[in-house]
Design brief:
about 20% strand, 9 strands, alpha+beta, six-stranded antiparallel β-sheet, Tscrpt_reg_IclR_C
């Protein structure tokens, strides 16, 4: 992608953001002229972008005016739900970090990747590449495998069909081997990453389950392979995940 294309994409994103944030509490339907005035963009540009947003269901049109659409409400509810999960998990993550002095992660699955909702870094932990809001291939992480082992088959198939690239020295890249490991994770309730996400790093994770037994998220402990005995801390991770599962609605 050339620099001009990147700049155009950034400008479009900025204009779309400006249109959404131009709506104020109490606003209903607004006309194109008013939205162009509030955002400072040309009326023709506002008209074009508004038409695109209407077609995507993000805005609703009536008599030449638009208002925020129900799809935005649906997306917002997902964001609120994930924030609630992170807030509920925070004290449990803190306790687990204090007990082990290693980095604790809370992650969910989105597509073929895990997204880190919260990270509580331990004083003795390595400088890991993970960050809050960051993503990592699910098959190469303990949290990803913990979630996949308690997910519907079509979710697992989506991850495998997308390919299993090598991320670390010991990443599982064979579909059959990954499936066998997921079956073991399902039986034991814990998943391991032994230098699969990166050299020298190990991790143990357990799923946070809903009432039907499907994974909503996963909690993990990560540390140096020379310092952390994952089998020793696995019970603490498992207990924390089970406790959080029971507290969630």
């Amino acid at each position: 992608m050339c620099a001009a294309e990147r700049d155009d994409g950034g400008m479009t994103a900025a204009r779309l953001t400006a249109l959404f944030t131009a709506f104020r509490p109490g606003d209903g339907f607004l006309g194109t002229s008013e939205l162009a005035r509030r955002t400072g963009m040309p009326k023709s540009s506002a008209h074009r972008l508004l038409g695109h947003l209407v077609r995507q269901g993000l805005l609703e049109r009536r008599d030449g005016s638009v208002r925020l659409g129900l799809k935005l409400f649906e997306v917002g509810q997902v964001a609120i739900g994930q924030r609630g999960l992170a807030d509920a998990a925070r004290p449990y993550l803190a306790d687990l970090r204090e007990a082990t002095r290693n980095t604790v992660h809370l992650a969910i699955l989105e597509g073929t990747e895990v997204v880190y909702l919260d990270i509580t870094r331990g004083p003795d932990a390595p400088a890991l590449p993970s960050r809050i809001g960051g993503r990592f291939p699910a098959h190469a992480t303990a949290v990803g495998k913990a979630i996949l082992a308690h997910s519907p088959e079509d979710v697992v198939e989506t991850v495998i069909s997308a390919g299993l690239p090598r991320i670390g020295p010991r990443t599982l890249t064979a579909p059959g081997l990954l499936r066998r490991q997921l079956a073991k994770v399902y039986e034991e309730g814990t998943a391991y990453d032994r230098e699969e996400s990166g050299p020298g790093v190990v991790c143990v994770a357990s799923p946070v389950l809903d009432n039907s037994g499907l994974a909503r998220a996963a909690i993990s402990i990560s540390g140096w392979s020379t310092r952390v005995r994952v089998e020793r801390v696995a019970p603490a991770v498992r207990t924390t995940a089970l406790t959080l599962s029971r507290t969630l609605p």
